[in-house]
């Protein structure tokens, strides 16, 4: 159903031209409707595929997060078990020392002191193996990152801000303070 239409176009010079246009009204609308419907169906299929992909990625990420948390927990348990296993000889030596002190009628204080000193050295070695280091304090300047001041003392022989006494030893594990040293700081003001 083609319809012919005449259009007159005027230009700037005042001339005019007549143009014959053929218009086919019904066919373009049908084609346009068919193209739009097909395009809509394609877009719906594409959206559905992307939704499915998104859900799969979300499930994969959730599984990854759960697996990572489980592996982290298992690794912590293995490390804890290894640490406790390293502490068992210390417990054995403390038990032997305690039994020796109880059973001896005339316990030799020097022998007992040496035994306790050996246990202390073994404990320091085990802790060092696991990354534990004591914080140096005496004669050092007070640092709130490593020390906790629990008191001050006046001492004219020492400079202000220096640590005069340590009440409880502090420790660092692999570069992180796990317990600050409890110290007394010189304050001559």
What does this structure look like?
The protein has 189 residues and is α+β, with helices and mostly antiparallel strands. The protein has 2 helices and 8 strands; from the N terminus they run E-E-H-H-E-E-E-E-E-E. It has a 3-stranded antiparallel beta sheet with strand order 3-6-7. A 3-stranded mixed beta sheet has the order 4-8-5, with no helix packed on it. Strand 1 (2-10) and strand 2 (16-24) form a beta hairpin. Helix 1 packs antiparallel against helix 2. It is elongated. The chain starts with a strand and ends with a strand.
Keywords:
189 residues, alpha+beta, three-stranded antiparallel β-sheet, three-stranded mixed β-sheet, 8 strands, elongated
Mean pLDDT rating: 82
Number of strands: 8
Percent helix, as a range, is 40-55%
* Number of H/I helices: 2
Instruction: Give the overall shape, derived from the CA principal axes.
Output: elongated
Strand content: 15-25%
Which structural class best describes the helix and strand composition?
A: alpha+beta
Q: Widest sheet: strand order?
A: 3-6-7
> Ranges with pLDDT <50 over ≥5 residues?
none
- Characterize the main sheet: 3 strands, antiparallel
The helix/strand order is EEHHEEEEEE
Kindly, what is the distance between the CA atoms of the first and last residues, rounded to a whole number of angstroms? 108 Å
Radius of gyration: 43 Å
């Amino acid at each position: 159903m083609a319809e012919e239409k005449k259009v007159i176009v005027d230009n700037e010079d005042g001339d005019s031209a007549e143009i014959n246009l053929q218009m086919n009204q019904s066919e373009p609308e049908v084609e346009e409707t068919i193209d739009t419907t097909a395009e809509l169906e394609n877009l719906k299929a594409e959206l559905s595929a992307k939704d499915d992909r998104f859900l799969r990625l979300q499930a994969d990420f959730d599984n990854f997060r759960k697996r990572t948390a489980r592996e982290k927990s298992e690794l912590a348990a293995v490390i804890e078990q290894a640490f406790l296993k390293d502490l068992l000889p210390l417990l054995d030596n403390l038990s032997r020392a305690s039994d020796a002190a109880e059973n001896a009628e005339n316990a030799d204080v020097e022998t007992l002191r040496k035994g306790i000193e050996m246990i202390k050295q073994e404990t320091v070695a085990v802790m060092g193996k696991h990354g534990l280091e004591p914080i140096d304090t005496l004669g050092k300047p007070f640092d709130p990152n490593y020390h906790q001041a629990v008191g001050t003392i006046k001492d004219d022989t020492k400079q202000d801000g220096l640590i005069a006494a340590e009440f409880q030893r502090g420790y660092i594990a692999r570069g992180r303070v796990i317990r600050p040293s409890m110290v007394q700081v010189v304050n001559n003001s």
